[in-house]
Each structure stands twice: as structure tokens, then as C-alpha cells.
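Sample log: Cyanocobalamin reductase / alkylcobalamin dealkylase.
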Amino acid sequence: MEGRVAEGLRGALGPFGFEVHAFKVGWYNAILQPTFHLPYPDDTLAFVVLSTPSMFDKALKPFVNKERLKIIRDPVDQCVSHHLSRVKEKFPDQKVDVIFDYEILPSRKPKFLAQTAAHVAGAAYYYQRKDVKLDPWGRKKIYGVCIHPKYGGWFAIRGLLVFPDIQVPFMEQSAPVDCVSTEEKRIELLEQFNFHWQNSRYRDIIEVKERYSEEQKAYFATPPAERFRLLGLTQ
């Protein structure tokens, strides 16, 4: 069942520059405090959805051209929402719950922890402070970051698709690729991500197969309120 659903999702989302990776809800819940648990049985099938560098040209620009007059909030969020919601039409006999990376609970906590989901699904390795043996940061707060084996840091985690009625007790977990394997590189990655993230050097911590185009970099470097102008939209 899981293979068939995965194939359907890749067919629906792949041409638009998205990647999907399957996981069991229990793998995710097992490593988080109860306040962050997803409210489904452990064997429930879920997928994490990533946008790759080609999403900008394959999904966002055509979406903006077509939906120009209907764009009222962040164009990327709206474009992702459009594509993930359309997935439901592919599975008319299944219940599909879509959870977006920007959604929050009444408690102000995010509805899901994107980087943890990407890690348990084997999509991207979530490098954290605990992955460094000799920690040089003392009392500083250090945030972790996911690195994709093909795109480095040039990707984004956009949402989850949960299939509440599909249970996959025998699904096997695949570990994410540990592509930043030396202590020095991990320190450099966390250092760049936490203190110099604006220059994007952390994204190139490994040799990448594809990165954002100059146009896309300019778009994401622009404050959200001004992005409408870049796309030729008026707000």
C-alpha cells in the first residue's frame, strides 16, 4: 500500500519540483515530547514534502502567472498549499490530512517539527549540537539544521501528508544520509547556520548537485512584504 501511495504522490508532486519521503508516525513521536506528538496511531502512514531548487520555476512562477489576482498572502505558501491540497483529488477513496510547515497550534507551538520529520523519513540529516563531541559554544543557544545529500541546504521542508486510515506495521525505516560526517565540518555547519546564515554558506557545506538560481536567491533574500513586487504583483 505504502509503495502505491508513494508512487501516486511522486507522480503528482515530482513534476513541480517537490520530493516526498514516507515515515511512520510512531518513529516521529518516539523521539519527541508528548506536546509535539502527532495525534495518530504509531503505524499511521505519513509523508514529509520537500521543495527542491526547481520548484521555483516548475511550480511557483506558473502558479503566480495563473493565480495572479487570487494571491493574498505569501505566494510560496499559497503555491505549496495549492499543490498539496490537489493531492487529495488523486486519492478520492482515502482521507488525507495536510499539515503545512507554517501552521501553529493555539499554544503557539508549530503543528509539526519539520526537521525532525525530515530526519525520521530519511529525507535529510538533522545536524544538532549533540552531533558534535567537543562543543565550542559554551552557553550559546545553537539551533540544528537539516542537510540534504543532493541539495545541501538548498531546499525547504513544506508540509506533511498523513493518511489516517492507512496503517503500515511492517514498513522499514531508512536512515538519512550522514553527508557531513567529520567533526570539523559539523562545527563549521552549525557555526555558519547560527551566526552567518544570511550569506548562505552553510547551504554549500557539501558538494551540491543543484542550488537556487540567482533569481530565486534574490526572491528569498527579499523581506516577505516586498516579494510581491518582485513577482510583479501588487498587494
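Observation: The CA atoms of residues 65 and 231 lie 9 Å apart.
Observation: The longest strand covers residues 156-167.
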